Amino acid sequence: MSKVLVPLAQGCEELEAVTIIDILVRGGVEVVTASLDDNTIITASRGVQLVAQKTLDEVIDDHYDLVVLPGGLPGADYLQADPRIIAKLKNTVEMGGLAAAICAAPKVLVSAGLLDGKQATSYPGVIEKQPAHDMQFSNESVVEDGQIITSRGPGTAMDFALHLLQKLQGADVRQTVEAGLVRA
């Protein structure tokens, strides 16, 4: 079974966080949500309260197939400022895993050096202002370049989450989950 870490920072984008978590769980992925500090009650960017399962310190040393960052502000700023997140992203990729981010969170991947020489996307204006070295910006909804997957924002969260599910569990699982969502 694939295992995924979703760090939840205060001020994260709730639609993105919940969509990522929900789609992956529906597809049989083990999802671990973790707060950055001892407060496991997260007040998201629109005031919705989310509850993290653990603190980051409790799960930081565990192995994950994917670390995925919801965006939103100031959530993405808190993720970017946390050296544990930067180190975990780098380590996950070095160990053959995936790193993914949506909306404002791809700037965390820039800080980790994971978008150098990559094609990526983000919420408009986020990573174009401070791009990674030799990064190519795309306006696509979801961009995969090697072990890195990025997406644009709340409106692309479903496509992003389904892409992550397919990457982890295969096309058949994605199709089954997507059919159950009645998207068309």
UniProtKB/TrEMBL annotation:
Annotated ranges, domain DJ-1/PfpI: 3-166
- Any keyword tRNA processing? no
Q: Which GO terms describe its cellular component?
A: cytoplasm
Protein's UniProt keywords contain Repeat = yes
Cross-referenced SUPFAM superfamilies, in alphabetical order? Class I glutamine amidotransferase-like
Organism of origin is: Thiomicrorhabdus xiamenensis
Question: What protein name does the entry list?
Answer: DJ-1/PfpI family protein
Sorted alphabetically, the keyword list is:
Repeat
